[in-house]
Amino acid sequence: MQPMIDQFVTFVYTRDLAASAEFYETILGLPLVLDQGLCRIYRVSSDGFLGVCASADSAPEPRGIILTLVTDEVDAWYERLLTYGVPVEKTPQLNPRFNIYHLFVRDPDGYLIEIQTFLDPKWPR
Which pTM does this prediction carry? Predict the structure, then answer.
């Protein structure tokens, strides 16, 4: 029998924890669930979390990483991001190859943030 996995946390590094906190807490509105001083952990969904950690030893490595937030409200997120003056890399649009509707922005350290909805009815909701 396979052991259970109860939660999922992705950790990324930041050069400026205050700027990242402003982005994730104020702009994206993610609830802070644990402040560890040099790491702040946010709830993204019921069992999914994002940890943002300041580190003098590890610089941010945004290349090849996409943090995808899944929602049915891509257009509403687009409007919210514009309200906060967040530069949008790719405006909301259909991606027929993957059957998704999505947009892209970057966080203060250059991590690519995708906000998308799956249009495939097989995607679990």
Answer: 0.89
